[in-house]
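Collaborator request, handled under Task 6.
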Amino acid sequence: MNSKGKMNKRVCLYLLPLLFFLAGCNISATWQKTTLLYFDTICEVNLFCPPSTFKDALKETKNTFSHIEEKFSPGVRDYSSPLVLALFKTATEVNHSSSGSFDITVAPLSKLWGFKSGKHRVPSPEEILSALKRVGMKKISIKNGSLILTAGMELDWGGIAKGYGVDLAAQKLKDMGISKGFINAGGDLCCWGKNPDGKPWQVGIKHPREAGFVEIIPLSDRSAATTGDYQRYFIKKGIRYHHVFDPHIGYPSHGKQSVTVIGPETCLCDALSTALFVSKTPEKILKKYPEYEAILIDSKGEISTLGNAFL
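Structure tokens returned to the collaborator:
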């Protein structure tokens, strides 16, 4: 055998183990699933990847969620963080688009009504008017790269930060090469690729008053988030008071039981679901976001849809 023949033989011998290795990598990619506890809720992570990749993916997800909790938890006042400034920009855009229906300065109202302490109460009109003096995103300014709040103001990122965290985590996992996955952080969810059955992910919209779902919707490469009056509430003299406040009047918004928004970004789905829940004209808001659609359940339990995807 000449030297060229020996070289070809060696090349073949080198290539065969490499092919077996690559085939093994492909075979080892399976659906991996676990749950995590962040944002005071159960977070489900379901990814198609090898076990070793899943371990790294969980590390990235935990680091992302921990960082979001660190920056946006109640009482945290790191107003110069680039992460905080970026999310404040998005929150401001939704605030403007919704004529103030979405507002991250409602923390004084949440405290007044007892949703922060768990000691629920119905405040007097005078107390509500006093709290409203510390509500309103127009009262916030940016100076020297930091948010400036007036005295007594406090931010409540609960209607947008969780969705933001899901978006950041999902993007990191996609950057790792994970082509199919699902993250659900207590109802704020992002799914990409197909589910384990090779079909779109099936997402249930919870019934606001009963067990089970009012509708199952197929999603792929989309996000969704729900705001409802059943998540945190108390009943006083037969009236349901919940945690989603109308920042214009200081009382819990009324007229809807839940709003689910579907679209490209979990962060915007999160914020828009609150804005549409509060607004008396949700259709006007959603027209400004043509890539998003919504499923609304009104106070009577009747279901309606908004957005081009339902036409």
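The cover message to the collaborator said: "The first helix runs from residue 3 to 28. The helical segments are 3-28, 51-72, 82-97, 107-112, 125-132, 161-175, 266-278, 282-286. Please let us know whether this matches your experimental observations."
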